[in-house]
Every structure is written in C-alpha cells, then in structure tokens.
Amino acid sequence: MKVDVLGTEYKIEIHKFDNDVTLKNNSWAAYCCSDKPLIVIGDLDDDQNFKFHDDKEKDTYFKSCLRHEIVHAFLNESGLKDSAQSPNGPWSKNEEMVDWIAIQFPKILQAFREIKCEE
Length: 119
Hints:
Layout: E1 2-5, E2 8-15, H1 21-26, E3 30-32, E4 38-42, H2 55-80, H3 95-114
Parallel strand pairs: 2-4
Antiparallel strand pairs: 1-2, 3-4
Helix pairs in contact: 2-3
C-alpha cells in the first residue's frame, strides 16, 4: 500500500513484531520513519501483542494507527521534523497532539464538507 504525502510517496508495510527491532524494542503498534518515506504497522494478527474481540475492532484499530502515522508523515514532509526542536523535544513529535489530530480529523473533515469548504 502507498499514500501520497505532500508529493512524497510513502510506502505502508505490515511487519511482524519479532522481525522489526523498532516495533519490538519500543513496544509500539506502528511508526513513521523520519529518515525515509515509510510507515510501518505491526501485524495485528500477532496474538502475542494484540487481542481483539472481532475483525471490526481490529480494523478500527488498524485505521486509527494508520491515521496517526500519516499525521506524523505530513508533519515530517512539512519540514517540521527538523525545525521544531525545543528542550523537551519537537512539538511536531508530541504524541498527544498527533493523536488529537488523527482522532478529530474525520470530524473536522465532516464539518468542512457540511459547509462546503474542504478545498
């Protein structure tokens, strides 16, 4: 799977936790590389790390991880990965902020569409 992020094509890959040092060592579900256009989502069928009640719950979680990492990709491609340094780390890497954008974006888009101002 691929996605265009501000003109840069990001590859989206599913990795087994045991085969991906970054996922495994950080106990992350997903990540967006800052040195190459790649988004990695952990294999959600890996019963050792994930327990879902059904496929709908798994799909919802997959989509939320994907939205979160795509927000990171947009921030990276906007030049904010390099120029947002502060003593406590770059604001563009703040997971709470990225989560808020990823969670609220569908609602924001719906509001924009409702009043026909999405473009």
